Amino acid sequence: MNSMVVITLILSTSVVVSVVESVRHRADIDIPSRDHLPEWGRLILALNWPPTVCSGFGKDCLVSKVKNNWTIHGLWPNQGSSAKPVNCNNSWHFDPKAIKKLQKVMSKEWTNLSGTSTDIKFWKYEWMKHGTCAVQLASLNTQYKYFARALKLKSEIDVYGMLARADIRPSRTLFYPSASVRSAIQKGVGHNIGIYCTAGDNYTGRDGDEAGMREEGTSAKAFNVLEEVRICYDLSFNIVDCKKMFGSQCNFKYKIQIPPKP
């Protein structure tokens, strides 16, 4: 092989390597590097129903902020049947300036309802507990990427619409089979999801059709109040079935109430 051919091969190889590295760098924005996968295998997008969350805060609830719109609780890296990992890097402090461009949207889609706290404190809590673990994924390795991705995923999920299409709507007088509520959301999402509830006897804002509940042989206090929906994603942000979920899901022996805004 003459020297000219050798030089040509070396230059060609260098160009290929340069292109591959360039593509990999750009891909890191949206696709996890296969060489540096995180220790956890999925993400959970947790969405809250504000009227139920508000009831838990009692007099401290910021009622003016409650809308008939599902809002973000958090985007959580997850290993399976436990809440781990959490609080992965306490030295990576939350910086509100890093998400300044997102804050207007976040104040509507990721809002704090407690009068004893603020949106900023809520976002800081979620970042320190979950975001500092999410950064192990290249596509979530900054505060901006983490919060922006959560907003994007939420924008693709219309839980309210999924329930409405099954004729399931917020009401203080209507109760729905728990399985029907979950099925309606699963049909819209296309995968198994988790639903979480507050026990009816702990829900201070209820004034439901208690007589109707008793006619079915069920205690007037024995019902669910829908609070949260959890949707699972793989590391490329594709929705997958939720398996081995942590936390107590709704008691499927009882019906579900979805309270309207106060």
UniProtKB/TrEMBL annotation:
InterPro entries per UniProt: Ribonuclease_T2_eukaryotic (IPR033697), RNase_T2-like (IPR001568), RNase_T2-like_sf (IPR036430), RNase_T2_His_AS_1 (IPR018188), RNase_T2_His_AS_2 (IPR033130)
Pfam families, alphabetized: Ribonuclease_T2
PROSITE patterns: RNASE_T2_1, RNASE_T2_2
Keywords: Disulfide bond, Signal
Keyword Protease: no
Signal peptide per UniProt: 1-22
Statement: the UniProt record of this protein carries the keyword Signal: yes
Gene Ontology BP annotations: RNA catabolic process
Cellular component GO terms, alphabetical: extracellular region
Active site per UniProt: 73, 126, 130
One GO MF term: RNA binding
Gene3D superfamilies linked to this entry: Ribonuclease T2-like (3.90.730.10)
Family according to the record: Belongs to the RNase T2 family.
PANTHER family (UniProt xref): RIBONUCLEASE T2 (PTHR11240)
This protein's name: Uncharacterized protein
Species of the source: Strongylocentrotus purpuratus (Purple sea urchin)
Lineage of source species: Eukaryota, Metazoa, Echinodermata, Eleutherozoa, Echinozoa
